[in-house]
Write a structure and sequence with these properties.
Blueprint: E1 16-19, E2 25-26, E3 31-35, E4 37-41, E5 43-48, E6 51-55, E7 58-61, E8 69-73, E9 83-87, E10 90-93, E11 99-102, E12 109-113, E13 116-117, E14 126-127, E15 139-143, E16 159-161, H1 164-167, H2 178-181
Parallel strand pairs: 1-4, 2-5, 3-6, 4-7, 5-8, 6-9, 7-10, 8-11, 9-12, 10-13, 11-14, 12-15, 15-16
Length: 190
């Protein structure tokens, strides 16, 4: 499991900042690991279809667009091994009724774990993109999220409240095959 890091964003000038409007971060082609990031946008600002782990990152939803949506993950089949996992993060911003994700394509997969959600998040949490049939094919999950709007009772029926076993694959670096390409931490000689 990924250990819980201290949440330092907001006052941390050492974090990576990815700032845009619509389509801020094209998350495509391969596996990605984002850590200690501040990602800011309005509509579908984390989008496309690869596999990414966002650890200890702040998602800031800007302004007041007609419809504020964080992710538009573009998996088209449940056989595709792609998706986004947000772990130990925070969702803040100035927008209202923000959706955590929308079903841009037929089978998106997005999971938020241990995420602090400010009141800007829409009570239903997620959107089937006005295509009710996608409620059968999406994989939207939440695990031990906090905040007044992190309430399973108000979520759309197609959202999964994950068990410990269901959440585990989304909480580890192996989700992005990290042992194959992330460098080990450097050793410091005395």
């Amino acid at each position: 499991m990924v250990p819980k890091p201290p949440f330092r964003l907001g006052s941390n000038s050492d974090c990576y900042k990815i700032i845009g409007f619509q389509d801020t971060l094209c998350d495509d082609r391969g596996n990605h690991f984002f850590k200690d990031c501040h990602i800011r946008g309005t509509v579908d600002f984390i989008f496309r279809s690869e596999t990414s782990l966002y650890l200890n990152s702040e998602i800031f939803v800007e302004g007041d667009p007609e419809m504020a949506i964080i992710t538009a993950q573009a998996r088209e089949s449940s056989s595709e091994d792609t998706g986004y996992s947000f772990v130990h993060g925070r969702i803040t911003g100035t927008a209202k009724d923000v959706f955590l994700g929308r079903a841009w394509k037929s089978s998106p997969r997005v999971v938020y774990s241990y995420t602090e959600m400010d009141e800007i998040v829409h009570p239903g949490g997620w959107s089937s993109n006005r295509q009710p049939e996608r409620a059968e094919t999406v994989y939207y999950g939440e695990y031990k999220c906090t905040g007044k709007v992190a309430t399973p009772a108000t979520r759309e029926k197609f959202v999964k409240q994950l068990s410990d076993v269901e959440a585990e694959p989304f909480l580890v670096l192996d989700y992005v095959e990290g042992t194959k390409w992330l460098l080990p931490p450097p050793t410091v000689r005395n």
